[in-house]
Write a structure and sequence with these properties.
2 strands; 7 helices; mainly alpha
Length: 172
């Protein structure tokens, strides 16, 4: 994206504020695309199940995206909270959950999932050799970034299936 050479360093003219602007723009675009997907899913669900609607269940929540890994996640890896790997569409409320036979989306954060995810993300970065320094991580080889992205997608599937979904089911 920034035209890094083999040295894998950030050009001197790239400032943190520039990267922040790029991240903000990417998040805005992905949010709009996500809202479009949600509207399409809601139209499909409403046609098949009148009175039911969906909401977004985020797997990695704000504490992760705004935490110690945010620069690597959103800067170096070019990910956003609205990317498909990080969201599931679940019933929006109790009435929709009853109609659809699924637990409804929780709008808060699961503290134990946040703590576990934070540690596991650090382990993924370390195991794949993604530098801890955000500017160094920007220049990491694309193959490393792709492997980290694949591992993060696997992590979110695991967190959803093994921790979030069972918690939602037991609460409903």
């Amino acid at each position: 994206m920034f035209g890094f050479g083999k040295k894998r360093t950030v050009p001197a003219e790239v400032k943190p504020s520039d990267i922040g602007l790029l991240i903000d723009a990417r998040v805005k675009i992905q949010r709009e695309l996500h809202e479009g997907r949600l509207a399409e899913e809601n139209a499909r669900v409403a046609a098949a199940h009148p009175g039911a609607s969906l909401a977004t269940q985020f797997i990695l929540t704000d504490d992760i995206w705004n935490g110690r890994h945010s620069a690597q996640l959103m800067g170096a890896l070019e990910l956003t909270p609205f990317d498909a790997f990080n969201v599931r569409f679940l019933p929006a409320d109790e009435a929709s959950a009853a109609i659809l036979g699924q637990p409804y989306a929780y709008r808060g954060q699961f503290a134990e999932v946040v703590r576990g995810a934070d540690d596991l993300i650090a382990q993924i970065f370390e195991a794949e050799g993604l530098p801890a320094d955000p500017f160094e991580a920007l220049g990491a080889p694309e193959a490393v970034k792709n492997e980290v992205r694949r591992n993060l997608a696997g992590l979110t599937n695991y967190l959803y299936e093994e921790h979030i979904l069972p918690t939602l089911r037991s609460a409903g």
